[in-house]
Amino acid sequence: MKLALGSLVVFALQSLALAQSEWVEPVSHTDAASSSTKTSTSSSGNKLVKLNSGSSFCFFLPPKPNVYVASTETQGVPYCTKSSVVPGNKVFPSNFISVAHYNKTSKYVQVTGYINPSKAGLMSKDEGGQYDNHGNGNPPGAQCEGYKYFVNLVEPADKRFCIRCCHSKVDCNTGRSEYGCLRVVPGDYSGNTHMNNVFAELDQINPNDSDEETHANDAPSETDSTSTSALSSPQDVEHAIDALAQETSTTDDLSTIKQKWNAFAKRLEQSYPSAQEKIQSLTTTVDNFQIKAQWESFVQDFKSKLQQSEA
């Protein structure tokens, strides 16, 4: 179904706003201290983790607050999102997991995402460390249920975590922990989930709800992100977001990135007033970004939605 000009952009914005709003809701957990009182019925030597879904999984954390992950890898303690995942394991502190993406293939299963380090007493400047079952294991005896190998990184400084369990050693790279999650466990590190289900809304968009008439007589717009001219077509929007991505590629300063997005968002609101609420929702999402990787993923998602709406 071909959408009219303005509806193309509006649909993309609606889809992206919906997807970006679907943050993994922090599960209401008991805190680490209270959960520790529930492990008396289980062996204190349990070093088992398990990955069932994006809301049911475990990984290792340091044995106590305010210690470095790397220097205490041999003493890692398994925590889970729920006490029922692996009975006897501790439960993640409330609001510790902020985003989690689950992926299972015939070769491995993994969960990647973001954490709130302070909720578990992790140090904000800690570059992190790696747990795995290479050799005797870190910690010794560590295992992932149903899989022969696993690798698990926790990176408080980047507010990031990852864990992958594999049938074959080649799929669980335990040799270069300094590479970090993004290279050791490639996967979804965006700040949102369920990106694919938004396309079901396509048939609900009315092709006549278009801003095309409003823009029909507009002069060709400039496509750099600092321009104030109207974005008269999906192509204009795509070019402008490309320019924005290029401008922000050389800085890690989130304040600068957010300022540039805000200027771009104002142009979108002026060009597509019917999507103002969706655009403002996106701005709220950008305002909540904590690391640049979230911004980079957001830009790719934005472009993807726009391209899909044109198809």
From TrEMBL:
Signal peptide coordinates: 1-19
Region (Disordered): 206-235
Top-level taxon: Eukaryota
Polar residues composition-biased segments: 220-235
Keyword annotations: Signal
Listed name of the protein: Uncharacterized protein
